[in-house]
Every structure is written in structure tokens, then in C-alpha cells.
Automatic annotation (TrEMBL):
Lineage, broadest ranks: Bacteria, Pseudomonadati, Chlorobiota, Chlorobiia, Chlorobiales
Family affiliation: Belongs to the UPF0166 family.
Source organism superkingdom: Bacteria
Protein name: Uncharacterized protein
């Protein structure tokens, strides 16, 4: 398998943050596709805490649980860089709060 230098963009957002009528995480994945990024995956966290230091868990049935959604996108660094302003604008428009991380990775595809 041949690997090439890529970048992993990770976006952490609460599942209840809305962008228009849809969850922000869904709209970020849709926008990544429109932007031509190689792929995007949204994962749901089952236990977390963040800036508010409150533990959120899927074990307790409670209204208003705002578990984290993690969107992972892997592509070339320049494509990730050009996508970030769109993410920033979407977060501002949604009046949300997200954490974004970037890291260098080696990626390859097995067929």
C-alpha cells in the first residue's frame, strides 16, 4: 500500500447545535462533500465533558443531553486549509461553539 502525507481535521460539536433547520454536524459533512473533500465521518460520543466541566453521558435518559459529535475529515493540507473558513462561518451562523484540531497523518487506500 502506498501512503501519502495528509491532514486530519477533527471538529467537535454538540449534537444539538443547529445550522438552520438541521444539526450543524450534518451540514458540515454536506459542505465537505460540496467542497470536494475526500471524505467525512461523523461519530457520536457516549461520554464527555468540555468547557463547562459537566459530564454528559448516553447512559442517563435525560432531556437536553448534548452529546458530542466528532467530524473527521482526511485530505491534503491545502484542501483542509481552504475548507476551514467555511467551517468558521457556519459555526458563527449557528451561534455554536466547536473545537477544531488538525494533525499530520499518512493515509492510503486499500481496494
Amino acid at each position: 500500500m502506498e501512503f501519502h502525507s495528509s491532514e486530519l481535521l477533527r471538529i467537535f460539536v454538540g449534537e444539538q447545535v443547529r445550522f438552520g433547520h438541521n444539526p450543524l454536524y450534518e451540514e458540515i459533512v454536506r459542505e465537505a462533500r460540496l467542497h470536494g473533500l475526500a471524505g467525512a465521518t461523523a461519530l457520536k460520543g457516549v461520554l464527555s465533558y468540555g468547557h463547562d466541566m459537566l459530564i454528559k453521558t448516553s447512559k442517563i435518559m435525560e432531556f437536553g443531553t448534548n452529546l458530542p459529535m466528532v467530524i473527521e475529515i482526511v485530505d491534503f493540507p491545502e484542501k483542509i486549509e481552504s475548507f476551514l473558513p467555511k467551517v468558521e462561518q457556519m459555526v458563527r451562523d449557528a451561534s455554536g461553539r466547536v473545537m477544531v484540531t488538525r494533525e499530520q497523518v499518512q493515509s492510503g487506500i486499500i481496494e
